[in-house]
Design goal:
Order of helices and strands: HHEEEEEEEEEEEHEEE
Number of domains: 2
Number of strands: 14
Radius of gyration: 21 Å
Shape: globular
CATH architecture of the largest domain: Beta Barrel
CATH class of the largest domain: Mainly Beta
CATH topology of the largest domain: Porin
Strand content: over 45%
Structural class: mainly beta
Helix content: 10-25%
Length: 266
């Protein structure tokens, strides 16, 4: 994936050079815009929290991603983050997500987003899985979102079917996980500040009650957060989020936390 993205960027640069070198093409303003757009971002966070639980042992992480979007609504992309685990190397030092999907308006004012993400841990040893299988797994997702004035609302669901990588209770049988959530956001009028709130519920292998040792079974549990983001420039933003999760409070893993973010988009 990284090679293809780099190749696409290189081709874009070369095409741009050829375009600039030819006055005839440079003066032609009738060419239609490209059906493809490329967007990306890079960020530093004070803690990488995934559904309320830290995957960086409460320490900072470096993250970034790139998307290739088509005018039809179809897209592909990748996103990565550094990882850290205390006393284990199940997932290694890096997470790389590969995803593809479609987004578009299904009715006036209502936008859908459907896709599939592959969570990959290239340096992990997968030792939590009895068979020694990789910790990599697939997860389809779907969401509906709408806007009303300066506010936005989204409801979504992600379901990872039974896979060996989710056999966290070590019974030798692949397990599944269901995650449902809602997000709310609002831009503060006449300011560069936006506010957000999130509530999620995991039922299955990623239950925070199970992963923090509060329950011996996959009882469902909530995670929640509230935050604010300020745009410093068109491409640079800073944010702060307070978050919590159900289950036992474990320092650097499931304790309530305030997470800061410095992000650049392009």
């Amino acid at each position: 994936m990284q090679t293809s993205i780099r190749g696409l960027l290189a081709a874009t640069v070369l095409a741009g050079s050829a375009f600039m070198a030819s006055p005839a093409f440079a003066q032609d303003e009738t060419d239609p815009p490209s059906d493809f757009t490329i967007t990306g971002n890079a960020a530093i966070v004070t803690d990488y929290r995934f559904r309320g639980l830290s995957l960086s042992a409460g320490d900072p992480a470096i993250q970034g991603g790139i998307n290739v979007n088509h005018s039809s609504g179809f897209y592909v992309g990748t996103w990565a983050s550094s990882l850290q685990q205390d006393g284990a190397d199940v997932y290694g030092s890096m997470e790389v997500d590969l995803f593809a999907g479609w987004t578009g308006e299904v009715t006036p004012g209502l936008t859908a987003d459907l896709g599939l993400v592959y969570y990959a841990y290239p340096a992990g040893d997968g030792v939590l899985v009895p068979s020694g299988a990789s910790g990599d797994y697939f997860e389809p997702y779907a969401s509906l979102s709408t806007a009303f004035g300066p506010a936005t609302a989204k409801v979504g669901v992600a379901y990872a079917w039974k896979q060996e990588a989710l056999d966290f209770n070590a019974d030798g049988v692949g397990d599944d996980n269901l995650y449902v959530y809602t997000d709310l956001g609002i831009g503060v009028p006449n300011t560069p500040i936006s506010l957000s709130a999130h509530l999620g519920y995991a039922d299955g292998a990623q239950s925070p009650k199970f992963l923090t040792g509060q329950s011996a079974s996959y009882d469902g549990g909530f995670d929640y957060s509230v935050g604010a983001t300020a745009n410093i420039t068109k491409n640079l933003s800073v944010g702060v989020t307070y978050l919590g999760v159900e289950g036992n409070s474990i320092d650097g893993f499931s304790d309530d936390a305030v997470v800061g973010t410095l992000k650049v988009s392009f």
